[in-house]
Amino acid sequence: MERPDLAASIDAAAEALVGVLDSAVSRHRLAVSPTQLRVLSLLSARPEINVNRLAELLDVVPSSASRLCDRLEAIGLVRRTADPRDRREVRLVPTAAAEVLLGEVRSRRHEAVRAVLDRMPICGQQDLLRALAAFGQAALGVQAANTETSTKARSA
Predict the structure, then answer these.
(1) Within 10 A of 26 (CB to CB), how many other CB atoms are there?
(2) Which of these, 116, 51, 111, lies nearest to 78 by C-alpha position?
(3) How many CB atoms lie within 10 A of CB 78?
(4) Would you say 40 and 94 are in contact if contact means Cβ atoms under 8 Å apart?
(5) Domain HTH marR-type spans what residues (predicted)?
(6) What letter would DSSP give residue 22?
(7) CATH architecture entry for 16-119
(8) Is 95 exposed, middle or buried (0-12, 13-18, 19+ CB in 10 A)?
(9) What does the pLDDT profile of the chain (156 residues) look like in tens digits?
(10) Among the residues of 27-78, which ranges form H helices?
(11) What is the dihedral of CA 45, 46, 50, 54, to 10 degrees?
(12) Cβ of 11: how many Cβ atoms within 10 Å?
């Protein structure tokens, strides 16, 4: 019997998950685009971020990241604040309204995933949980190795 292509299966499952998550959000009219939602998520997870770091994370030029933040600031979802350690540095901070929006999106996504999980047998859910935990641990190891390699390359 031929062994299934695990990477292809994971890719297909990831595509299905993205579809479930996207449809959970797209059914509700949001005041922001998917890219703006991603920016808000990044800002929420990284309270010390500035425009240059945001641009790196989005893989865009700083001027594009700044324009994205301008739009989010105009609708009251982002504030720019001076860094208390270096007043020349400007930090991006999600507002309370942004945090509420992110909470609503998270809740909708969790409900959508729960609906899929409810269609799975309990043993399948438990197997999935173990597999995801193992995958997460392995991914952390790969990320650590990649970080170490890129750090060595920069210092060489």
Answers:
(1) 11
(2) 51
(3) 22
(4) yes
(5) 3-137
(6) H
(7) Orthogonal Bundle (1.10)
(8) middle
(9) 566 788 899 999 999 999 999 888 887 777 788 899 999 999 999 988 999 999 999 999 999 999 999 999 999 999 999 888 888 888 999 999 999 999 999 999 999 999 999 999 999 999 999 999 999 999 999 988 888 777 777 676
(10) 34-45, 51-58, 62-74
(11) -50
(12) 11
Token pair, residue 48, equals 């010390």
DSSP state of 121: -
Kindly state the greatest CA–CA separation across the chain: 65
The C-alpha atoms of residue 131 and residue 14 are separated, in whole angstroms, by 14
CA–CA separation, 104 and 106 (whole Å): 5
Look at residue 115 and give its three-state secondary structure. helix
DSSP state of 49: -
Would you list the DSSP string of 71-113? HHHHTTSEEEEE-SS-TTSEEEEE-HHHHHHHHHHHHHHHHHH
